[in-house]
Amino acid sequence: MTGVSVTSVELPEVCVSEVMRYAGYRSADECAEREIMSCIEEASDIFSSRVAYAELDVRIDGEICDFGLFSVKSAALAKNLKGSRQAVVFAATAGVGIDRLITRYSRLSPSRSVLFQAIGTERVEALCDAFCNEYARDRGVALKHRFSPGYADLSLDTQREIFKILDCKRKIGVSLNESLLMSPSKSVTAFVGIK
Amino acid sequence: MDFREFLKSNTVYLDGGMGTLLQKRGLLPGELPERRGVTHPEDVIEIHREYFQAGSNVVSTNTFGANSLKLDDEELEIIIKAAVDNARIARDTSGTDGEKFIALDIGPTGRMLSPLGDLDFEEAVEVFAKTVRLGVKYGVDLIIIETMNDSYETKAALLAAKENSSLPVIVTNAYGEDGKLMTGATPAAMVAMLEGMGADAIGANCSLGPKQLTGVIRELLRSASVPVVLKPNAGLPRYENGETVFDVTPEEFSSDISALMTEGVRVVGGCCGTTPEYISALVRETKNIKPAPLSDKNMTVVSSYTHAVAFGEKPVLIGERINPTGKKRFKQALLEKDIDYILTEAVNQEERGAHVLDVNVGLPEIDEREMLTLCIKELQAVTALPLQIDTSSPVAMESALRRYNGKAMVNSVNGKAESMAAVFPLVKKYGGVVVALTLDEGGIPSTAEGRVKIARKILREAERYGISKKDIIFDTLAMTISADTGAARVTLDALERISRELGCKTSLGVSNVSFGLPNRDTVNSTFFALALDRGLSCAIMNPYSAEMMKVYYAYKALSGLDEMCAEYIESAPEFTVSEPTVPASAGGVAQDFSSELQRAIIKGFKEKAAEITAELLKQVKPLDIVNGEIIPALNTVGVGFEKKTVYLPQLLTSAEAAKSAFECIKSFMAKDGESDVKIGSVVIATVHGDIHDIGKNIVKLLLENYGFKVTDLGKDVPPEKVAEAVKNEKAQLLGLSALMTTTVPAMEKTIELVRSTSHDCKIVVGGAVLTEEYAKMIGADKYAADAMETVRYAESVCK
Q1: Disulfide: which of B44, B228, B351, B547 matches B86 by Cβ 3.0-4.6 Å?
Q2: pTM confidence score
């Protein structure tokens, strides 16, 4: 394994249609749109975009993905990583600010809280995409689709291994709670096979 | 020499990184570095020794992550004992001159504290306490709390250090590129809180190189009266040919730090990527710099988890609305534990321009300690304003101060011996700025001289506790002029004398001055203007009062405190007098309004819904509005949601509009002393171990809309607490939510317990991981896929 690197990635503008999708809208009238835009505006300067990552050698043996320092049993991940000799493991976070907004509005206006949830999800997904694109572009490699603990049969317990390796708390301020969820909540961990 | 003594007049050199050096000696990624002290003591001793030889006065034990969340008690003790032994051996065998100390190193727990994470504050204090007690037992000279990126966790650690030792404590935080902690605190806010609690030195470590930390360090130097610490990384890590390299060389590192030492930094060292080479370069470069003398900044400051508010230059407005005195609706909210009502008062005052919020929730009928602590906790989730803890109960005061994430304002102490003996120890321990009332056993003196005399007495007594006058704000007691027309003059004279002669900050509860008079706003705001001119630093006031706010903005503009009168101009439209707006259908029959209210609710217009309801209440009975207007409107939306023509956010905005209509009705009924009729009692909670409450909050909102009495126990609720509430509330329905597979067993356990104590209560469950089948398996009566379904079920149960 290489050491852990930390990077900040520039994010594209918030994609309104994605936010609507995450919030459960199939269509929006003018009123709803105004509300969404006002939430996006309120959340405009609170996001961070920090990523901690490392490259791991990977060997696939049936359902076992052996990363050297630890191995994971998951047929779906094994299938995803098949043919890759190396994978990137990363943790990305949109920061704690959005959690504060979500918490604040869950008491004051649950409808806005739901919209902030959606915006946070859109941002952290955009961050992961931007990171993977940048990584691939800078190194001239192609990447597979990212794969996170909790997808298909990849157990959430994998989070413990990822957190140990990436030292997420210190590197990017993400911590793992007892039930294996992350704080800040708009954070993502994933493996990405290098083609 | 004692470390505190040494710190007073010397530059202190700390050590550098440990992790990277252990990696070079074979530490694997993911391995706990602290275990190396037991498995490879010679490596750790060698590193410590090299730091002492490089010139470090203090080395930190290899205990950064040694805490009871990661290790069991037995291993924790073995690791800390070994760590202290290793440092001691290194010191004894280093062979060089100079003062050498051993610091117990304490890093973050690795978990996030509630409300952002799932670690309870008191649990965190206990985790740190275990480490501290072991450090004390094995004989360290001081404690270093470092790399904390959350102010709340920093407070927990410092509190644990103070409660379990009398050792000196250095506290350093990890600031981000934006110059703040991850959870939002500025350096000035951290200084306010940490100095208040008695940290011996305060600073920044990790995350960035020395250059990038310059802004943070300057802000620390401006605000701190204790020595400032700088322990940066060797720049940023990069990977080159399979090796970690840092981009700042020892020479550059030393000269950058040297520059900041000439600006006043007193305690220096290195963090990630630094080695003994960096420390010896640093010592060489800076050994001739004379340690900057310490100066008391003498600032009166309170803080929240994001920012500090200083008293002195500009008047500070303290919102008085969170207080049941004379407010029927507020009393009702307290009795019903309707926290949302209180939270809304907080946010509204913030929007009106308050800088600090007074929090008084004392009522004879309720457990004030529990209520105040709960409110402090909840308020900190919705507002970033510093809070003023307002209670006459020392027990409630302590509990609230403990949980407060920052340096609070404390309201109040007075010149009575009993009051000072109860309040001052708390202010000393937790930090705080305390409002001191100029009265004592003899009552309120009728002369200014008498009040100044009490102020002097209070200052003398405070000093005995080690509380300096900057942390005391005197209230010279505004009393109504309707009883004594000279009252205001005495108050103002005393205020001016305390400000001039004692050099202290002052506060007034302005509104008292007009009690018993008509047009109180005019009297209050004029008095406010007079007091400001005599030197008033802050006022406990009503931010909703336009007259008061106008005076505030105008005073600032007139005293040159408002650059280009910008704030005054910006505030002007808010206070422009306009014709009262007459609703379009005024004078029409009630029927017209009714459909309008339904429309407003369906469309989700909060303000409009409230306005129309207020108008309706003049002619229509409250219950008729609920049954004839609000419920039908909600049903329209609810049916739409069930048919999937209305989406969740729309359902919620309608629910919020309905809530604001209800709020109107509630205040109307509270005024008449009527209590509103509830159609059934429901208890809801997110189960133990689960911290997701969005779904539960939505269910609560809708249930309340439909007229149910909802007791919301919050998230992460133990089964016992749920069972107890179901019993006490005589609940007909219990709603449990769980989002994660891991917490479904907790749900099952809760159901089991409730079944054994309350036989008649139906149980409905919901949450992302649940299904109809699952719900049956764990013994629930009903699985509800969404909030509307829960409402429908509740209606059928409570019929």
Answers
A1: B44
A2: 0.87
